[in-house]
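Chapter review: from sequence to fold.
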Amino acid sequence: MRKNATQEYIFGLYFTEAYGKSLYETLLAMKKNPNDPFLQQMLRDNMVKLRDARNNYTTNKYLETENPKFTDSYNRFLFFMGNLRKNDLTQIIDNYQK
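The token string follows.
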């Protein structure tokens, strides 16, 4: 039941176009279930949306900026995502291709 709740939460974030938060929660869930096909697909889908946003210069619409009110872990994630190049995003996406 907990696994289903986590997946619903991740998909809900994705559905509401909170791709950065959805990706973060996906990565946290993948720590426990790295081979889960749903999580792998969500990782890929979120990365594709963020890459498209980067290409359209709308990344800030889908990915929050670092903020002291966020946890250190989430701020590190935001910093990392903000510094990824398009080539890096594409390589990650290709690794999770079906």
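Two observations follow directly from the output. The chain has one domain: 2-95. The first helix runs from residue 2 to 15.
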